[in-house]
Structures are given as structure tokens and as C-alpha cells.
Amino acid sequence: MARDYYGLLGVAKNASQDEIKRAYRKLARELHPDVNPDPAAQQRFKDVTAAYEVLSDPAKRQVVDLGGDPLGGQGAPGGPGGMGDPFGGMGLGDIMDAFFGGGATRSRGPRSRVRQGEDALIPITLTLEECATGVAKDLAVDTATLCTSCHGSGCADGTRPATCDMCKGTGEVQQIQRSLLGQVVTARPCPVCRGFGEVIPEPCLQCNGEGRVRSRRTVRANIPAGVGDGIRVRLAGQGEVGPGGGAPGDLYVEVQEQPHERFQRDGIDLHCTVHVPMTAAALGTSMGLQTLHGVEDLDIQPGTQSATVLTMRGQGMPRLRGTGVGNLHVHIEVVTPTRVDGRQAELLRELATLRGEEQPELASRGHNGGFFSRIRDSFAGR
Description:
Strand order of the largest sheet: 10-11-15-14
CATH architecture of the largest domain: Sandwich
CATH class of the largest domain: Mainly Beta
Number of strands: 15
Number of helices: 9
CATH superfamily of the largest domain: Urease metallochaperone UreE, N-terminal domain
Radius of gyration: 35 Å
Strand content: 25-35%
CATH topology of the largest domain: HSP40/DNAj peptide-binding domain
Structural class: alpha+beta
Shape: elongated
Order of helices and strands: HHHHHEHEEEEEEEEEEHEEEEHH
Distance between the termini: 50 Å
């Protein structure tokens, strides 16, 4: 079954070449291995690249529109180029050309030496406080940059490219094949100029004819408030310069958030634990709690138990590129002393006598704090 090349790029069958190119560039930036390391994304990147190569070639696109698959079965036994191939290794595009194109593959002309650069990815480590407020960082980036000697031409100073002697500037060489259909002429990229139609007799010594060199430079990255671990910030036009001095791709800065010594993050909410002495929990107290936004008063009511959660609204993380701030959830842990002196033990026994708490009691079924009762209630509520 022929593959749906239009569906792979998400374009209509009557899409123009510009629409096909824009769709491919959008998908390539999302699926490129430097941006998306997911194996499934890498496979899809290969699929959309193959779809673009087919649909950008008028001859291959004509095959698709006629219900065929220009890439179908290549290299497989019994398929084009494999055992039992009755057409002498010709692809389906060559066969269709033999029927509809007069027996010769139409030339596409030389391809441009100037190409779009690829995207780049760099990690950045931030503290929770930096993620909360946003920060500007100067990053050292190693990427391909425009050659300052030839300014992208790839030629030594005072020289220029020359027309390729083999293909005479067409970028392609023709090959004659014999098949059941007769003599068929096909075209392939010129092996001397690699399809460019021209060669560089005297390459630039600084870039060796590439038009770009690798160098370290400093890039200012403005990280917005509310970012978190794994978030990527896009810096347009700060990626790799393309071959021949082509336009650069984008640079993606991936945030790696450091663990905090007091707070645990859950989206835009924060959590922390406060240890409260049993006497303070029984009598009630207040304390100044250091949050990300400053010191805030935390009131602990008399009789507060362990596992109580107090919520301080608006003391969490800001919402990324949105409005609103999360909350800080304070988990209370009542601390029982492990060592007491004689006087303290005497006072505690006196308190226990006054409260009738000399012996522990088994919690009744109606007691809300019982472990088994909580299990029973959880199943009863289903």
C-alpha cells in the first residue's frame, strides 16, 4: 500500500511547494534529534523528511498523485533494485517517466550550496529561586558560526566558484539503463560537485570551503519566571549557521532545576515540613516562616496534630507565561521528646494524671484517627 506522503506532512493534495516547505520546516524543528531525543520522534523525523523529498520533486509527486509510491520496496527482494526486478533496478519514478515523460528523467537543476542551519540544544542549571523569579544568564555556546574570512562563500580571498566540468553546471549526470521498456535515461547528482553545479578551486583556508566554522560565543538567555525542570526556552536564530553561510537555526535552552533544601515542588505549588514541639502543638504558637517571597507569619492553633497541612495561599510558584501564583502547603510534624530529665518526667506524669491519660487506649470504631477505620471508610466510600 502506498504511503500517505501528504498526510505525513499534514498538507492537502493541492498544496503549493511553499506550503509543503513550511510544513516540513515546522515538523523538522519539533522532531529533530537535537531537539527531541524520543526514538519515536526520530523515526517520525525520518518519515517526514522522506515525504518532503518526494513531494518537493515534481516527478515523484506525480507518481504519488497517480497512486504509486516512489520509495516503496526499494532494496527489498522482488522490489526495485532487488531480486526478480524486471525493470533493471529502475525506481517507480523512472518507470513512470518512461511512460509519461518521453523516456528521460527531467532535470531539476543544481541545488543551492546555501542551506538552513540546524537547531542546537544546551542545558542550564537553575535554583528554585531563579525558576520563581526568572533570570538572565550569559551562556557559552559552541556552534557553527559564519566564517569571518570568506563570509560564507567558501572561497579563498579573491577567488570565486567555477562551473563543474563534469555536469557543465546542471548539478546532475545522466545514466542510460536498458529494461523491458527499452532504453531509459535517468539523472543522478553529479559526484564531482555533489549536485551544486559548481566547484570551489581554491577553498577558504579558515573554513575549508564550508562557509562556516565552529567557535565559542556568549549568548544572553532570558529565562522567564515559572519555568521548571525539562522546560525548553527557544532563542530564535541562535543555533547552527547552515552550510554555505545559510541562515542559522534556533537555540533551545533546557532547564535543569536543582533540588531545594526546604521545599518540594508540585507544579506551581510548593510543600515543606515544619517540626513543632508537642508542647507548642498543644498550646498553639506562631512562627516566622521563610518562603520564596520573604518571611511570613505561620499560626499554629492549639491542639494541632501531626500530619496537619496548613496552606499559605499565594506563596508558591508563578504560572509560566500566565497569571496567578500557586500555594505553599506546610506539613506539620509534632515532635515527641526522646529524653527527659527527672523534673520533666515528674511534670509529664502529673499532666497525664490530671488528664486521665496514664494508659493508652484502643481507638473505637467511631474514632476518626484510627488506621483500620480509615481503611474501612475508604472502601465504604467507593
